[in-house]
C-alpha cells in the first residue's frame, strides 16, 4: 500500500467519481446548515431512504441483467396493503410469509414473461405497473388499510424498532445490501447476471441459462419489494393504497445514479447504495436549507445531473472531452 | 419505434378493458313512482375515480343511497376511472340520453370544459361536484357543489389559535405547515385560507416554514423529521389533510417531541379521528363524503325544480377538536 503511486490513486479516484460527488454535496449542505450532519438527522435520512434503498437493491440485479423493472412501485403498494389486511385477519406471524409468497408470485410471473417468453421488459413491467395497481385497488376495495389494534401488536418492530441504537429499517437495508452485494460480486450467479446483461447471445453460447438468470433477477427484485412493503407497513401501521406510486422512477434514478448502465452489464450494489443515499440526502438537505418547494424540483434535477457529470468526468480524467 | 407502437397498443388494450369493466358496473337506479304525472327526474353523474380512495368510494355509495331514497329521482351513475377522455365520452352519452341534469366530478379542470359547454348548449344544467373546473368554464356551469377549501384553511387557523390561547402561548407559538400536492387547487386554497387567517386571529404566532407533503403520509413524516432537526421549538403543525397530519405526528412521536405540539389537519380521516381519541392530535375539519354526495344530488334536484342557486353552493364543513369530537361519527375513510 505504501508504494501506491500517484497514478494508482488517480485510477482509484476515477472509479469512485460518484463518491466524490456525494462528498461534495455533504460538505455543501453541512456548510448551509450545521445540523445536516447531526447524528439524529443522518440516522433519520438513512432510515427514510431504507425503503427506497431495499427496492433499489433488487432493481440493480434486473438492470445489470439488461432489463428494466417499472412495476416495483405498485408492487410495493400491493405488499403493504396485503400485509396490513392479513395482519388483522390471520395475525402477523402468518401474514408476513403469506404476503412474501404473493409478492414472489408476481415477481415470478414477470420473470417468466421476460425471461422465458423473451417479452420486452419495459412493456411487461409498464403493463404490470397498472395491472398490479388495479389488483391492489380490487383487493382493498379502494379503502385505506389500517391495523385496528396499533398498541397490541409486535408488527411495528420492522419499521419503528431499533437495536443497539440503530433503527431496524437501516439494519435490514445494510444486511440485505451486504448479502446481495456478495451474491452479485462473488458468486457464479452474480457473474452470470453480468454476462447476460453484457452480451446475452455470448452468454447463451457459453452455456449460461439466460432465461433462468433473468427469471431469478425478477424474483429477487420481488423479494426486495416485499421487504420494503413490510418496512413501510410496519412503520406507519396503516397505509394508502397508492403508497408506492411513483417510487419506480426514484428507484431507477438511484440505480442509474449509482452508475449501473441501462443497457445492462455494469453496476454494483455498493454504488446503488451511494445512489440511494445521494437522493435521500438531497431531499433532506434541500428541506433543511429551506428552499421554496417549487425551486426544489429544479435544484434536485441540477444536483443529479452534476453528480452524473462528476462521475463521467472522473472516469475520463477531465471535465470535458471531444470523444464520448 | 417498434416498442412505441407496442406501448400504444398496450395502453389502448388496458383502457378498453378498464372501460368495459366500468360500463358493466355503471348503475341505473330507478325511482319507483312517478310524481304528479311527470316522469321521474333523470340525473346523470360522471365521477372522477371511484375506488381509488375511500372518500370517493363512500361518496358513490351515499349518492346511490340518497337517490334510492327519493322516489322522484332516477340516476345514471358513471365513473370515469380518472380518465379525461372517458369522462368526456360519458358526458356525451348523458347528453344523448337527454337527462334532466348532469353532475360532474372533474377528472381535469381544463379538459372537461368543452363537454360541459356542450351540455350547457343542449339545455342541460351542469352541477360540478367536489372540486371546481377552471374559471374559463364557469359560464357553462349552473352551480358548484362542494367544500369551501379557503374556509377550511381559515377554520384550521382558528382551531390552532384557540388552542394556543387555551395553553397561554398565543404570543410566542411557532407553527410549521405541511401542504398538499403543489399545484392542486385544494392544496393552494387551504394554504391560502390558513396563511391569511392565522395572523388575523393570532398576530403574534409565527408561521416559520411551509413544505409540501403531497397528500402522502410517508412523505409528510420525512418533512416533519427535517423540521424537527431544523427547529428546536415547534408548537403547532398544520397539515393540509389528516393523512399528512398523522405522518407528522408519527415523526414527532418517534422523536419524543409530540407532547408539546398542537396538531391540526383538514378532511378528518379515520386515522386522524383515532389519534384525537388518543389525545395526540388536536383538531381537524370534518368533511363528510356523504354530505358531499347528498349536497350534489340536492343541487341537481333544486335546479330541475327551477330554483335559483348561488354559483358557489358550499356544504358546511365544521370544526372538530378533541373537545367536540363525540358529536361526530368516526369517518369511514
Automatic annotation (TrEMBL), chain A:
<protein>
    <submittedName>
        <fullName>Ribose transport system permease protein RbsC</fullName>
    </submittedName>
</protein>
<keyword id="KW-0813">Transport</keyword>
<keyword id="KW-0812">Transmembrane</keyword>
<dbReference type="InterPro" id="IPR001851">
    <property type="entry name" value="ABC_transp_permease"/>
</dbReference>
<feature type="transmembrane region" description="Helical">
    <location>
        <begin position="122"/>
        <end position="142"/>
    </location>
</feature>
<feature type="transmembrane region" description="Helical">
    <location>
        <begin position="162"/>
        <end position="185"/>
    </location>
</feature>
<feature type="transmembrane region" description="Helical">
    <location>
        <begin position="286"/>
        <end position="310"/>
    </location>
</feature>
<keyword id="KW-0997">Cell inner membrane</keyword>
<dbReference type="GO" id="GO:0022857">
    <property type="term" value="F:transmembrane transporter activity"/>
</dbReference>
<keyword id="KW-0472">Membrane</keyword>
<feature type="transmembrane region" description="Helical">
    <location>
        <begin position="213"/>
        <end position="231"/>
    </location>
</feature>
<feature type="transmembrane region" description="Helical">
    <location>
        <begin position="12"/>
        <end position="32"/>
    </location>
</feature>
<dbReference type="GO" id="GO:0005886">
    <property type="term" value="C:plasma membrane"/>
</dbReference>
<dbReference type="Pfam" id="PF02653">
    <property type="entry name" value="BPD_transp_2"/>
</dbReference>
<keyword id="KW-1003">Cell membrane</keyword>
<feature type="transmembrane region" description="Helical">
    <location>
        <begin position="251"/>
        <end position="279"/>
    </location>
</feature>
<feature type="transmembrane region" description="Helical">
    <location>
        <begin position="44"/>
        <end position="63"/>
    </location>
</feature>
<feature type="transmembrane region" description="Helical">
    <location>
        <begin position="93"/>
        <end position="115"/>
    </location>
</feature>
<keyword id="KW-1133">Transmembrane helix</keyword>
From TrEMBL, chain B:
<comment type="similarity">
    <text>Belongs to the bacterial solute-binding protein 2 family.</text>
</comment>
<keyword id="KW-0732">Signal</keyword>
<dbReference type="GO" id="GO:0030313">
    <property type="term" value="C:cell envelope"/>
</dbReference>
<dbReference type="InterPro" id="IPR028082">
    <property type="entry name" value="Peripla_BP_I"/>
</dbReference>
<feature type="domain" description="Periplasmic binding protein">
    <location>
        <begin position="48"/>
        <end position="308"/>
    </location>
</feature>
<feature type="signal peptide">
    <location>
        <begin position="1"/>
        <end position="35"/>
    </location>
</feature>
<dbReference type="GO" id="GO:0030246">
    <property type="term" value="F:carbohydrate binding"/>
</dbReference>
<dbReference type="InterPro" id="IPR025997">
    <property type="entry name" value="SBP_2_dom"/>
</dbReference>
<dbReference type="Pfam" id="PF13407">
    <property type="entry name" value="Peripla_BP_4"/>
</dbReference>
<protein>
    <submittedName>
        <fullName>D-ribose-binding periplasmic protein</fullName>
    </submittedName>
</protein>
Amino acid at each position: 500500500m505504501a508504494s501506491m503511486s500517484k497514478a494508482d490513486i488517480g485510477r482509484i479516484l476515477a472509479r469512485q467519481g460518484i463518491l466524490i460527488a456525494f462528498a461534495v454535496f455533504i460538505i455543501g449542505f453541512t456548510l448551509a446548515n450545521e445540523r445536516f450532519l447531526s447524528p439524529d438527522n443522518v440516522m433519520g435520512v438513512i432510515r427514510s431512504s431504507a425503503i427506497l434503498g431495499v427496492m433499489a437493491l433488487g432493481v440493480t440485479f434486473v438492470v445489470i441483467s439488461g432489463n428494466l423493472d417499472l412495476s416495483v412501485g405498485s408492487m410495493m403498494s400491493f405488499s403493504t396493503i396485503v400485509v396490513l389486511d392479513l395482519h388483522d385477519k390471520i395475525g402477523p406471524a402468518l401474514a408476513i410469509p403469506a404476503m412474501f409468497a404473493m409478492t414472489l408470485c408476481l415477481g415470478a410471473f414477470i420473470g417468466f414473461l421476460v425471461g422465458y417468453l423473451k417479452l420486452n421488459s419495459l412493456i411487461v413491467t409498464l403493463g404490470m405497473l397498472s395491472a398490479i395497481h388495479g389488483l391492489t385497488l380490487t383487493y382493498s376495495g379502494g379503502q385505506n388499510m389500517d391495523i385496528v389494534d396499533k398498541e397490541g401488536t409486535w408488527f411495528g418492530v420492522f419499521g419503528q424498532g431499533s437495536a443497539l441504537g440503530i433503527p431496524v429499517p437501516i439494519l435490514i437495508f445494510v444486511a440485505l445490501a451486504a448479502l446481495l452485494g456478495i451474491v452479485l460480486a462473488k458468486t457464479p450467479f452474480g457473474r452470470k447476471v453480468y454476462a447476460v446483461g453484457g452480451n446475452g447471445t455470448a452468454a447463451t453460447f457459453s452455456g449460461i441459462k439466460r432465461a433462468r438468470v433473468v427469471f431469478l433477477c425478477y424474483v429477487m427484485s420481488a423479494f426486495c419489494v416485499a421487504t420494503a412493503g413490510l418496512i413501510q407497513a410496519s412503520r406507519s401501521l396503516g397505509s394508502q393504497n397508492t403508497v408506492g406510486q411513483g417510487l419506480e422512477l426514484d428507484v431507477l434514478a438511484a440505480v442509474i445514479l449509482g452508475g449501473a448502465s441501462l443497457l445492462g452489464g455494469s453496476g454494483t450494489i455498493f454504488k446503488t447504495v451511494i445512489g440511494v443515499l445521494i437522493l435521500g440526502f438531497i431531499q433532506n438537505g434541500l428541506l433543511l436549507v429551506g428552499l421554496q418547494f417549487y425551486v426544489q424540483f429544479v435544484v434536485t434535477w441540477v444536483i443529479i445531473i452534476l453528480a452524473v457529470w462528476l462521475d463521467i468526468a472522473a472516469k475520463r480524467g477531465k471535465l470535458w472531452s471531444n470523444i464520448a | 419505434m417498434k416498442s412505441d407502437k407496442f406501448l400504444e397498443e398496450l395502453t389502448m388494450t388496458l383502457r378498453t378493458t378498464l372501460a368495459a369493466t366500468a360500463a358493466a358496473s355503471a348503475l341505473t337506479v330507478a325511482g319507483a313512482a312517478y310524481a304528479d304525472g311527470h316522469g321521474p327526474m333523470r340525473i346523470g353523474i360522471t365521477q372522477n375515480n371511484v375506488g381509488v380512495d375511500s372518500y370517493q368510494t363512500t361518496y358513490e355509495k351515499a349518492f346511490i343511497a340518497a337517490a334510492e331514497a327519493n322516489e322522484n329521482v332516477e340516476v345514471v351513475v358513471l365513473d370515469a376511472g380518472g380518465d379525461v377522455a372517458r369522462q368526456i365520452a360519458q358526458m356525451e352519452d348523458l347528453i344523448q340520453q337527454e337527462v334532466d341534469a348532469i353532475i360532474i366530478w372533474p377528472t381535469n379542470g381544463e379538459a372537461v370544459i368543452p363537454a360541459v359547454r356542450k351540455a350547457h348548449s343542449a339545455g342541460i344544467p351542469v352541477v360540478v361536484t367536489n372540486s371546481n373546473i377552471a374559471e374559463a368554464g364557469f359560464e357553462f356551469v349552473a352551480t358548484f357543489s362542494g367544500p369551501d377549501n379557503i374556509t377550511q384553511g381559515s377554520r384550521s387557523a382558528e382551531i390552532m389559535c384557540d388552542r394556543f390561547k387555551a395553553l397561554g402561548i398565543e404570543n410566542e407559538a411557532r407553527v410549521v405547515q405541511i401542504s398538499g400536492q403543489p399545484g392542486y387547487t385544494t392544496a393552494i386554497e387551504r394554504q391560502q385560507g390558513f396563511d391569511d387567517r392565522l395572523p388575523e386571529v393570532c398576530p403574534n404566532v409565527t408561521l416559520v416554514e411551509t413544505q409540501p407533503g403531497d397528500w402522502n403520509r410517508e412523505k409528510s413524516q420525512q418533512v416533519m423529521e427535517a423540521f424537527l432537526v431544523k427547529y428546536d421549538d415547534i408548537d403547532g403543525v398544520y397539515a393540509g389533510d389528516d393523512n399528512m397530519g398523522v405522518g407528522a405526528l408519527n415523526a414527532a412521536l418517534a422523536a419524543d417531541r409530540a407532547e408539546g405540539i398542537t396538531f391540526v389537519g383538514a378532511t378528518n380521516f379515520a386515522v386522524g379521528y383515532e389519534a384525537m381519541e388518543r389525545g395526540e392530535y388536536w383538531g381537524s375539519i370534518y368533511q363528510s363524503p356523504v354530505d358531499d354526495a347528498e349536497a350534489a344530488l340536492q343541487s341537481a334536484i333544486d335546479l330541475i325544480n327551477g330554483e335559483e342557486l348561488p354559483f358557489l353552493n358550499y356544504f358546511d364543513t365544521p370544526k372538530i377538536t378533541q373537545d367536540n369530537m363525540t358529536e361526530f361519527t368516526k369517518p369511514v375513510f
